[in-house]
Amino acid sequence: MSNLGSFYVRWTPRALSVLRIIVGFLLMQHGAQKLFGFLPVPGMPPATAFSLMWVAGVLEFFGGLLFLIGLFTRPVAFILCGFMAVAYFMAHAPKGFWPLMVGGNGGEPAVLYCFVFLFFAVAGGGEWAFDRFIGRGRSV
Predict the structure, then answer these.
(1) How many C-beta atoms lie closer than 10 Å to residue 19's C-beta?
(2) Distance CA 58, CA 68 (A)
(3) Is the dihedral of CA 34, 37, 40, 41 positive or negative?
(4) Which residues of 72-93 are buried (b: 16+ CB within 10 A; e: fewer)?
(5) Is there a contact between 100 and 87 (Cβ–Cβ < 8 Å)?
(6) Cα distance from N-terminal residue to C-terminal residue, the chain
(7) Where are the domains of the chain?
(8) Rounded (10°) angle between helices 108-123 and 2-36
(9) For residue 38, which of 26, 104, 139, 140 sits 20 to 30 Å off, Cα-Cα?
């Protein structure tokens, strides 16, 4: 059992980094969609500068970029957690209680992102984060 225990101790911070990188990359796509029209949704033009949608795009793209590389992971994750909570309650909750994608308010991704970011705000960015190189990141 000690071999399995040492495996988990060694690989948990690395798996945390992989999760962080994937989540940051996915969030950046939402921001790129709003800011630059990349991977456009039909009928959705890029956001107007300084609009609420533009602010969301800036947080998603640049916050996602910082999160992806693991720079200032904990404060960025905390801000993004709050942002996702606000996004859920402003855009999704008024459409109904249940967040399921089909037949619900469509807020399931916002809820998942919110709690993933809350976790990273506590756990840090993992072994492969820039925070570790500048002495800021101590992770699980």
Answers:
(1) 16
(2) 15
(3) positive
(4) bbbebbbbbbebbbebbeeebe
(5) no
(6) 20
(7) 2-133
(8) 130
(9) 104
How many Cβ atoms from other residues are within 10 Å of residue 119's Cβ? Answer: 15
Determine the Cα–Cα distance for residues 36 and 51; give it in Å rounded to an integer.
Answer: 14
- Cα–Cα distance for residue pair 20/123, rounded to 1 Å: 11
In angstroms, the CA 21 to CA 97 distance is 31
- Write out the chain's pLDDT in tens, 140 residues: 568 889 999 999 999 999 999 999 999 999 999 999 998 888 888 899 999 999 999 999 999 999 999 999 999 999 999 999 999 999 999 999 888 867 789 999 999 999 999 999 999 999 999 998 887 555 54
C-alpha–C-alpha distance, residues 53 and 88, integer Å: 14
> What are the phi and psi torsion angles at 128 (to 5°)?
-100, 45
